[in-house]
Amino acid sequence: xxxxxxxRETPNGPVTVxxxxxxxxxxxxxxxxxxxxWRKTEIDSxxxxxVAYRDQDFTARPGHHVYLTIDSGVQHxxxxxxxxxxxxxxxxxxSAIVVRPRTGEILAMANLPTFNPNExxxxxxxxxxxxxxxxxxxxxxxxKIVVVSAALTEGLISLQDHIHCENGRFVFAGIPLKDDxxxxxxxxEDIIAKSSNIGAAKIGIRMGPERLYQYVRNFGFGSRTxxxxxxxxxxxxxxxxxxxxxxxxxxxxxxxxxxxPLQMVMAMAAIANKGVLMKxxxxxxxxDEDGSVIMQHMPQPVRQVVSEPAAxxxxxxxxxxxxxxxxxxxxxxxCYTVAGKTGTAQKPINGQYIKGKYFSxxxxxxxxxxxxxxxxxxxxxxxxxxxxxxxxSPVFQKIAERSANYLAIPxxxxxxxxxxxxxx
Length: 424
Known about the structure:
By secondary structure, this protein is an alpha+beta fold. It has helices at about 25, 30, 70-90, 125-130, 130-135, 145-155, 190-195, 195-205, 210-220, 245-250, 260-270, 310-320, 390, 395-405, 415-424; strands spanning about 1-10, 15-20, 40, 55-60, 65-70, 95-100, 105-110, 160-165, 170, 175-180, 185, 275-280, 285, 295, 300-305, 340-350, 350-365, 375-380.
């Protein structure tokens, strides 16, 4: 956000002051801005106050200080890695967010292209927009975590159940659905690891429209998260009566639905957090001019979206997705086990999917079984590759590795190269 000049009414008439214009500065302007003092009294002929006739006396108050959950070190890491991917893949835009799954605290949030708040005249509305909360799009395969974890909660599947993926082509309601590879009979765990659209569709069909819709809403899709940032959109979740005849097969793979990057990272963080969805936090506390805390924000659980056992099974499947067997091998970390999911969604324009235009994403967390950080990376129309595993996963890997070092997150293991060096 940024500040600018604005006109404010005071007891002595309007005055021009510095005020929050966009972002958190606008949302928290009343907290950050002090209060003018005034005195209602009488004076004598020599303009000296007649204290006995003083009627009102309000002391001026300076503005409060707002402390964010944003960590400047992690923020710098994210911004520098997004700048690198902008040069490497030349996307229309790139966004990333880092969250603590257990608390919902946002440690970093960045969008590129961006703007210089000191040179507002050269900025554009597009560069000032916080795409993480204001932009919605079809999420693609990252959304498969919803249908699979929901079906695990309902007891309709287990990770080792086998589902036939029709050798890459499945006709439902007369319309074909394809996978990138021809899979036959594979496990539910492999449906996540290999990102089978057909496997996710068949699980969604088992769920049925009403149950699937309820889980989608429980995960927070179709509603604003309530984050203290302006311009947040709710996304698009159609009610069941408005679904098409193929919706039950397309929504599980992240089509016919629109989400924000913030909604998706919080959904993944819920899986990491034993199935509990948290409200995103960006403000930690408000402090007055004396240093006293006058408002302390605390972590706020929203609801249990899937069962704890289902969340554990989902973590296992998401670890497979980042293994040598999955689509996100480039997200692997030397010292930590990663759980996560890739997404590659074609961009619809005027109701038609456009070949060559994709949203590529990766959302993951680590250490997988005791998560400290959940990180989302979203690229709009990357060049030189478009699969999320090729373009977004390496950005996750670099942000995660640097953030882990900066935050001193204890490693799960020592890399083999380090062990060899110690032996020598």
